[in-house]
Amino acid sequence: MKRLIALFALTLSLSGCGYNDFQRLDEQTKSAWSEVLNQYQRRADLVPNIVASVKGEANFEQETLTKVIEARSKATSIQATPELVNNPEAFQQFQQAQGELSSALSRLMVVSERYPQLQANQGFRDLRVTLEGTENRITVARNQYIQAVQEYNVLARSFPSNLTGMVFGYKAKPNFSVQNEAEISRPPTVDFSSDKK
């Protein structure tokens, strides 16, 4: 009988200390992370088709294509596992690689504007629309992940659930951040001194 009472007391203490919330929010962050990975993979799968359609334009800048190919290779070489979200250094590397691919694809799209034949190619236009849609899906998935991690981290840092987190090894998870935070926080320089006559 004493064991049953002790088990009942332990169950009540675990449910009141945030243990079940840790389980729920941990699964929520894993699910959100899986969707982020799914959208990044969708984008990575589009890159070969985009590169192939651009290569058809004889004079297209080879350096731009090379950077896209290298960025995709780097982004897909990082083993993106659910455990990645518990390793701040690996998470940062993953985020940096995905940022480099985003940047390379953006440059590719800007450079492609200079090629009327490429812009007239229906296949390229369709791929461009698909890429834009994928970038939007990535943004939505990242936002959902950011919210899930925020909820989890609040629980991990709040009292008394932080004690439960320490006992069971639930640590705060890394979150997406802005790559060039210092540059973005600096206000742009506006110069109205040019004389317009």
3D architecture notes:
With 197 residues, the chain is mainly alpha-helical. The protein has a domain at 27-148: de novo design (two linked rop proteins), CATH 1.20.1440.20. 75% of the residues lie in helices and 0% in strands. The chain has helices spanning 2-16, 19-55, 62-77, 88-112, 116-120, 122-157, 161-168, 181-185. The radius of gyration is 24 Å and the shape is elongated. Residues 180-186 and 188-197 have low confidence and may be disordered.
Q: Overall mean pLDDT score?
A: 82
**Unreliable runs:** 180-186, 188-197
Basic shape: elongated
What is the CATH architecture assignment of the domain at 27-148? Up-down Bundle
Radius of gyration: 24 Å
CATH superfamily of the domain at 27-148: LemA-like domain
- The number of distinct helices, counting runs of at least 4 residues, comes to 8
Largest sheet: none
Structural class: mainly alpha
Percent of residues in beta strands: under 5%
Order of helices and strands: HHHHHHHH
